Amino acid sequence: MSEATQQFPCPGCGASMVFDVEKQCLSCPYCGNLVDLTADGDAVIKEYPIEKARETASRDWGGKTVVIHCDSCGAEAIINAGQLTAECAFCGSIHVRSQSNEDVIKPESIIPFKVDKQTAIKKFKEWLKKRYFSPNDLKALAREEKIQGVYIPFWTFDADTSSFYTAEKGIYYYVTEKVYVKDSSGKGRYEQRRVRKTRWYPTSGTYRHFFDDVLVCASSQEGRNLINRLEPFNMHELVPYKNEYLSGFCAEKYSIGLEQGFTEAKSEIRSELYSMIRNQINADEVRNLRIRTSYSDVTFKHVLLPIWIAAYRYKDKIYKFVVNGQTGLVRGKAPISVIKVIAFAVFILLLIALYFYFIGNR
Q: What is the DSSP letter of 16?
């Protein structure tokens, strides 16, 4: 899905405007006219009760939209209904087709791109230079024009939690015992030593905590692990969603629904609660901790976060390089040249052999 650009005519000359990453506004590439996107200062970012998602969450993306589906990797993107696409941003395939617009929850907020395309390309080149064990022809295949800006869907969840826990807490105490030891000559003897032991006591209690903006990636793409490794994002820079921010970019349609997203959020919450409650128990050690948690006042919002993606094929396999479009953090995968790895291993073995040869002939 090449750049899925929304159409925003310039009020000066009528040409299509695009979002300018450096200026953080719509910009006309012909007459230089600028349109501020922050003029609506009263707009607020809403969060919706999860049990009333169907009734309260908006489906209006700001214009007539369609879903574009890639038959190769399964990626789906939301684009303007009149926008022609030729290539998938996630795998580079040209096997894309449009579908009727689905009942897709509109993003409530968005973090606009802060890293521009040239900076992302520069980071891509620097990353490629450091792939010492990659095939020599990799750079020629990973063409820089393939890097694309994509807004990736995420869910955020707020939840008030109330937990009841049971555990065993261990308290250290020390006793003096005779211990049989041997010295360097092999002679044995008894000596007194202070030995630490643990007394275990049952414990239980309650713990309440409010979780704010638990972030869950709503993409099920193969590169999801790479995307998750781009965190953290600065969520304080979220702004109310406007489709103007998508001008010059495309937005992936979420493939992990709200219910599954909250299931993943609860898994993260449970992990955090486990650590929090362990720290609350006044003990030297804690074991057999069991937690039962109830959730209330659960709210959510759909957000879009900016990522640059370079997808390239090497020997019929897709490799991806991603850049956090807000912070510039990079992650990626690259093929490994078996010949280079073997050559390096042989080189190291030769160095070791030479080292022992010279040591032995001194």
A: B
